[in-house]
Design brief:
The protein is mainly α. The protein contains three helices and no strands. Helix 2 runs antiparallel to helix 3. The longest helix has 28 residues. It is rod-shaped and about 75 Å long.
Length: about 120
C-alpha cells in the first residue's frame, strides 16, 4: 500500500513539473503586445526626459545621455527577450567575481559613494 502511494505521489510530481512550464508559456500574440507596450514605455520615458530638459532641470547633454541609456536598455531587452525559458541573460552592471563591478552605482561603491 505504501509503495503504491509513493508511486502515485512521484507520478504526480513528475506530471506537475512537465505541465507547469507548458501552462505558463506566453503566446506569440502576448509577446507582440508586451513588446509594443515596452516600446511605448521607452518612448514615454524619452518624452519625460525631454520635458525635464525643456524645464531646465537637466542639461541637453544629460538628456541625450539618458535617452541613449533608455535606447540601450530597450535594445538589451529586445535581444534577450527572445530566449527560451530557463536560459539566463547576462546581467549588465555587475562584474563577475567578488562584489559589484564598475557598472553598478556608476562606479561608486555599493552605497552610492556615501562612505
Amino acid at each position: 500500500m505504501k509503495r503504491r502511494l509513493s508511486i502515485i505521489f512521484a507520478s504526480l510530481v513528475i506530471l506537475t513539473m512537465v505541465a507547469v512550464p507548458t501552462y505558463a508559456a506566453i503566446t506569440d500574440q502576448q509577446k507582440t503586445e508586451i513588446n509594443a507596450l515596452n516600446k511605448q514605455m521607452a518612448e514615454t520615458q524619452k518624452q519625460i526626459v525631454d520635458k525635464y530638459a525643456e524645464a531646465g532641470e537637466i542639461s541637453k547633454a544629460q538628456a541625450d545621455a539618458t535617452k541613449a541609456n533608455i535606447d540601450a536598455s530597450e535594445q538589451y531587452r529586445q535581444q534577450y527577450s527572445q530566449q527560451q525559458p530557463g536560459q539566463i541573460a547576462p546581467n549588465p552592471g555587475y562584474a563577475p567575481g567578488s562584489g559589484y563591478g564598475n557598472g553598478c552605482c556608476g562606479g561608486a561603491n555599493y552605497y552610492g559613494g556615501m562612505w
